[in-house]
Amino acid sequence: MPRTSRPGTPALLRVLNDRTALGLLLENGPMTRNELARLSGLSKPTAAEMIRRLEEAELIEVSGESSSGRGPAAVLYSVLTDRAIGVAIDVQPLGITSTVVDATGAAHPVVFEAAEEAPGERDAATDLARAIDAACAAASRDPETVTVVCVGIQGSVEPRTDDLVFTDELPGWPRHEVTETLAKALGVEVLVENDANLVAIAERREGAGVDASTFALLWMGNGLGLALDFGGTVHHGAAGGAGEIGYIGAPIDAVDYDPEARLIDDLVTTRTIERLAGRHGIEAETLADLLEAISADPARLAILDELAPRVGLVVMPALAVVDPERIILHGPIGIAFGAELAGRVEAWLAEHSRWSTPVLNPTITQTPVLHGARHVLIDAVRQALVEAVAHLPSVGDDPPE
């Protein structure tokens, strides 16, 4: 039988020490042996042994020298990031955007792969594999080192059944055993998350939600999505459908702004923007082009005055149920109209509801879905590296403390 470590044995202490050293290097960047000893609380001889084992296992490398101005320069060690990497992927109707994510969180090139096949000929695993290869090629990384991917979609995966729910799009995607099927086809761990939820993670980590106790993020684009963040945790719901407000019936007050609206989704969609812009003679082929044209047109503020009440009606259910500390307007529409739309929505809510909730424009405006996936993957890739420490070969015991 294989020998297992018991609590307190030298083998177990060695693993714990090595994990501590690797974790400190991941969190703090390049460090010297003495710095590792000081931050870990271990002796210098033990720190030297940790470094030796991690270096022999090709988990860390010498990355430079640190000089305090007195005495010889000390060697700096940093984590090797090519042992395990992840790929962040944003799936959109017209194609897929992807980028490599390593344990340090360093920026890598973002690549867009246009959909090559007609919707009826699409295959999810083929699309994702192409995105992985493109991201790795752009970052000069080996696709064989990819251990996990995080995929943002316009929909959700039911956590209890692994079924694809709340979406009528995503051609070529399996409807059942989604993550299991894709993981087997790709040979890597697959994390599938709603795109609005990923954007909320990005805004929580480095944007408008950093210091909020709770916030709701409204994603407005080709569809609607609402992400709910409670103290740094995105609320998914029992079936993964938390925030799918587009399926709610339009409130009776909506008749004042859009008599044809039947669902909340009808109040703020591409069709809505097209109609509001069309009244001022503004037209374009795509939503992105239309938003750009509106932003450059003198009628912009008049259009925002008409749009703001519709957005206010959309966020009202979140205010009534959650009463978040703030609302963040996001997605292509929230990004395009920024603070001008946010200010109008906040004023409308204060006048037409019992809430005076601050409404903010987004901070993360470039590839926000990938930003959120990146944060998910940094944690996953770091965990994979830390777990690799347990499999390091044993060569004697650490020196006593």
UniProtKB/TrEMBL annotation:
InterPro entries: ArsR-like_HTH (IPR011991), ATPase_NBD (IPR043129), ROK (IPR000600), WH-like_DNA-bd_sf (IPR036388), WH_DNA-bd_sf (IPR036390). Signal peptide: none annotated. Pfam families: HTH_24, ROK. Belongs to the ROK (NagC/XylR) family. It comes from the Bacteria. This is ROK family transcriptional regulator.
